[in-house]
């Protein structure tokens, strides 16, 4: 019996995998629990479309991340913090401090352009 997995199942496969299982396992456990659906022609088409959309979404996210990385490439941030005698920072640099430093850096760059 051929089924399409809806979730990752240890020892069987991952989400959206097309797998062959014994009919009893598929009918009595996987399908009633919602872990799989029968691999009919329409379900296979839906699976292909879902995979296509997921790939498109992943590509879009990757492109946005690459663009952001290019913008951040030349930026140097200076964040003031207390340090000990050995040169180590007391505490930590938080995301809020980084965000504020990026905002100040961005404002400075805009003022230079004007």
From TrEMBL:
GO biological process, alphabetically ordered: translation
Lineage: Bacteria, Pseudomonadati, Bacteroidota, Cytophagia, Cytophagales
Ranges in coiled-coil conformation: 44-71
Domain Ribosomal protein L9: 13-40
GO molecular-function term, one example from the UniProt record: rRNA binding
A Pfam family recorded for this sequence: Ribosomal_L9_N
Protein name: Large ribosomal subunit protein bL9
GO cellular component entries: ribonucleoprotein complex; ribosome
InterPro entries assigned: Ribosomal_bL9, Ribosomal_bL9/RNase_H1_N, Ribosomal_bL9_bac/chp, Ribosomal_bL9_C, Ribosomal_bL9_C_sf, Ribosomal_bL9_N, Ribosomal_bL9_N_sf
NCBIfam families in the record: L9
Assigned keywords, A-Z: Coiled coil, Ribonucleoprotein, Ribosomal protein, RNA-binding, rRNA-binding
């Amino acid at each position: 019996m051929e089924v399409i997995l809806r979730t990752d199942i240890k020892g069987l496969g991952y989400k959206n995998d097309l797998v062959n299982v014994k009919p009893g396992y598929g009918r009595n456990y996987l399908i009633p629990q919602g872990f799989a659906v029968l691999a009919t022609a329409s379900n296979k088409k839906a699976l292909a479309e879902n995979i296509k959309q997921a790939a498109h979404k992943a590509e879009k996210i990757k492109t946005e991340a690459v663009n952001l990385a290019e913008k951040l490439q030349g930026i140097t941030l200076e964040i003031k913090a207390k340090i000990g005698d050995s040169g180590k920072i007391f505490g930590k640099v938080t995301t809020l401090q980084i965000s504020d430093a990026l905002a100040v850096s961005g404002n400075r760059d805009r003022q230079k352009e004007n």
